[in-house]
């Protein structure tokens, strides 16, 4: 067999380790900030429970739901039926406190009229504060448009005799021979529900068969979506209504948000505080009821900047910051940069020529 001979120089060369390749990292772009994360629940803002009034003098039962959770209520929308009668929602600042009839006057009549106008029904200004014929016509139209008869009550109406024409005997002046009845329009307080702001979203309804009492409510909310996240009390002091951040769902979709409100925690029980987050262009409707990741920026070093590991930034003898950028042929070149700030091993940098360094370029870190 042939013998293989190696010189001392060959053996030394074989034992020498290969030259180390430069270690690089990719340039990214984003915000450099001290951040906290929390789980945020998405829901509608300003949830309010509105009382359903029981009918007077009888057992009151919810006999139908005329809308559903998640539906939008407009002025004049029917919400539920109680004892077979509808309950309409109208905009207003206080709840109905007594039945209204033609000829009535007052702030409650004005509120009804404004609600009817909001529902698209004609009530002339000349009747403001007075339940006149046009107001009565608008009420009847509201009921008719939703398939219900307008409520009425029976009142006695006295009629005087006219005498016996066949005998020629005149009737005594003012004599009453019979009492007739007339059906008069009435708007029961139990069939009106006033809400401060419409449109509104239905959050909860009483079930059919519910006995109506003081605890029976319809829950509505603003159409605006918000996020709520619990935050430790120790961190809450670092946040303000100027604090910004992002919400990110499981699919990676992100929305920029800002803190709208802060609620302190309870130091005695250890309960955390909470933050309410809103988006200027609104949150996706598909997020209703979901839990998403909230990332809040406590201290912003740089916003929308090029980011590199701090180890990639060096300085020349004059103190000029620079990075070493890998070229397409594998070689490297020094590029002067401005270091905007550092945080947690990352540096935000800027370059004079935007084409000189771009996202995805590789910079030497070791």
Name the beta content range.
35-45%
Largest sheet: 6 strands, antiparallel, barrel
Helix content: 10-25%
Average pLDDT number: 90
Element-level helix/strand string: HEEEEEEEHHEEEEEEHEEEEEEEEEE
- Compute the number of structural domains: 3
Write down the overall geometry.
elongated
Could you tell me the radius of gyration in angstroms? 38 Å
Class computed from helices, strands and strand pairing? mainly beta
Low-confidence stretches: 165-169, 173-177
End-to-end separation in angstroms reads: 48 Å
Q: Give the neighbour order of strands across the main sheet.
A: 2-13-16-15-14-17
Number of helices: 4
According to DSSP, the number of beta strands is: 23
Describe this structure in words.
It is elongated, with a radius of gyration of 38 Å. The chain folds into 3 domains: 73 residues, conserved putative lor/sdh protein from methanococcus maripaludis s2 fold, CATH 2.40.420; 89 residues, Efflux pump adaptor protein, beta barrel domain (Elongation Factor Tu (Ef-tu), domain 3), CATH 2.40.30; 141 residues, no CATH class. About 3% of the residues have low confidence. It has a 6-stranded antiparallel β-barrel with strand order 2-13-16-15-14-17. Strands 3-12-11-5 form a 4-stranded antiparallel β-sheet, with no helix packed on it. A 4-stranded mixed β-sheet has the order 4-6-7-10. The protein has 366 residues and is mainly β. Strand 19 and strand 20 form a beta hairpin. It is built from 4 helices and 23 strands.
């Amino acid at each position: 067999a042939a013998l293989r001979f190696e010189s001392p120089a060959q053996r030394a060369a074989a034992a020498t380790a290969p030259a180390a390749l430069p270690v690089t990292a990719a340039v990214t772009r984003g915000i450099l900030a001290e951040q906290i994360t929390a789980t945020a629940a998405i829901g509608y803002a300003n949830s309010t429970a509105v009382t359903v009034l029981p009918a007077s003098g009888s057992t009151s039962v919810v006999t139908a739901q005329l809308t559903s959770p998640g539906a939008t209520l407009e002025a004049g929308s029917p919400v539920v039926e109680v004892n077979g009668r509808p309950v309409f929602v109208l905009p207003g600042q206080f709840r109905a406190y007594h039945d209204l009839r033609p000829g009535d006057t007052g702030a409650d009549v004005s509120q009804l009229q404004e609600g009817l106008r909001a529902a698209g029904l004609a009530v002339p200004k000349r009747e403001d504060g007075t339940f006149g014929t046009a107001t009565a016509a608008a009420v009847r139209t509201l009921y008719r448009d939703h398939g219900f008869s307008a409520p009425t009550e029976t009142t006695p109406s006295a009629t005087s005799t006219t005498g016996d024409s066949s005998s020629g005997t005149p009737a005594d002046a003012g004599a009453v021979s019979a009492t007739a009845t007339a059906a008069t329009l009435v708007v029961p307080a139990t069939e009106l529900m006033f809400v401060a702001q419409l449109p509104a979203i239905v959050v909860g309804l009483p079930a059919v068969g519910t006995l109506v009492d003081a605890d029976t409510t319809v829950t509505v909310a603003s159409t605006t979506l918000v996020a709520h996240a619990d935050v430790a009390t120790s961190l809450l002091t670092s946040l303000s209504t100027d604090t910004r951040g992002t919400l990110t769902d499981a699919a990676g979709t992100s929305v920029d948000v800002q803190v709208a409100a802060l609620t302190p925690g309870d130091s005695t029980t250890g309960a955390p505080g909470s933050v309410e987050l809103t988006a200027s262009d609104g949150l996706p409707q598909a997020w209703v009821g979901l839990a998403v990741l909230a990332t809040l920026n406590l201290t912003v070093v740089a916003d929308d900047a090029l980011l590199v590991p701090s180890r990639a930034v060096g300085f020349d003898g004059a103190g000029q910051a620079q990075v070493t950028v890998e070229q397409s042929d594998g070689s490297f070149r020094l590029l002067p940069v401005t270091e905007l700030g550092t945080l947690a091993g990352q540096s935000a940098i800027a370059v004079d020529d935007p084409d000189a360094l771009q996202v995805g370029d590789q910079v030497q870190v070791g």
